[in-house]
Design goal:
By secondary structure, this protein is of the alpha+beta class. It contains 4 helices and 4 strands; from the N terminus they run H-H-E-E-E-H-E-H. The protein has a 4-stranded mixed β-sheet, with helices on one face. The longest helix is centred in the first third of the chain and has 21 residues.
Length: 131
């Protein structure tokens, strides 16, 4: 492999090497998780700004204002990458002025740099919960 391997390519290669049974069973687990979610409650909310409904609808509340960094596209893309879904499947809403969303100040070109890691963790935790 070359040094230009993306994380996604690495995971795909690792999954192919680890066994076909695991790869074939993941969609079944995801369907089971969504069905269980429908029985347990209205939606999975692993973080204040992320919600996955029983029908699979993913809603992301952006807690920053759009000031040229592309927060309404870049931040949902980070979550989509970790959830392994297409970014266009995520519904983006503007967060209300609520302390549960944390620091909502927008300035200093820090929106993406301050949120990418917490969003990666939230997306990864949500995917682990669903699997």
């Amino acid at each position: 492999m070359s040094a230009d391997v993306t994380r996604r390519e690495f995971v795909k290669a690792g999954a192919a090497l680890s066994g076909l049974v695991v790869v074939l069973q993941l969609p079944a687990y995801a369907r089971t998780a969504v069905a269980a979610l429908a029985r347990v409650g209205p939606a999975l909310s692993p973080a204040a700004f992320l919600q996955i409904a029983p029908d699979g609808t993913i809603t992301f509340w952006v807690s920053k204002c759009e000031m040229g960094q592309g927060v309404r596209s870049a931040l949902p893309m980070i979550v989509a990458e970790e959830l392994d879904v297409a970014p266009e499947t995520i519904r983006v809403e503007q967060a209300s002025a609520d302390p549960k969303y944390g620091d909502q100040a927008t300035g200093g070109s820090s929106s993406i740099s301050s949120l990418w890691q917490p969003l990666r963790k939230a997306g990864a935790q949500a995917r682990a919960m669903l699997i």
